[in-house]
Amino acid sequence: MKESETAATGAKPTISVGPNRFKAVGMPMQMLANTLSRYLGRLVVDETGLKGSYDVTLEWTPDMPPAGAAVPGNEPPPADSLSLFTAVQEQLGLKLDSKKAPVHMFVIDRLDRPEAN
Fold first, then answer.
1. What is the helix (H) or strand (E) element at residue 21, kind and residue range?
2. β-strand partners of 23
3. What is the total count of domains within the chain?
4. Fewer CB atoms near the end CB (10 Å): N or C, the chain?
5. CB of 54 within 8 A of CB of 4?
6. Are strands 21-28 and 14-18 parallel, antiparallel or unpaired?
């Protein structure tokens, strides 16, 4: 991962996403964690301590389709394919560890239908 030169110019991060890849210029680590959360379907918490903005390019092979999902074109990935977890480690030098951490959540205790006017 390379520290971005755009931080000095004050430019906003730019992101280009595809199904199994994304490229960003000037991305803070918290934004990277949020982006990985969307791809993984679970919360990713930034514990790197890195405060700068980075240029990031990440490419991986999609996960296998669920068992029984016989859809044309859903062949198993090649043996040399990279999972998102492996790609993050090999291409960015970061490691995703699964663990429990506190999260913020909203709890709705009650819901009433509005009265007619």
1. strand 21-28
2. 16, 57
3. 1
4. C
5. yes
6. antiparallel
Domain assignment of residue 74, yes or no: no
How far, rounded to the nearest angstrom, does the alpha carbon of residue 75 sit from its chain's CA centroid?
Answer: 24
pLDDT tens column, 4-52: 888 677 788 899 988 888 999 999 999 999 999 988 888 898 999 999 8
DSSP, residue by residue, 45-69:
---S---SEEEEEEE-PPPPPPTT-
Domain that holds residue 58: 1-63+80-117
Give the span between the Cα atoms of 66 and 49, in whole angstroms.
36
Distance CA 93, CA 87 (A): 9
Q: Is residue 73 part of a domain?
A: no
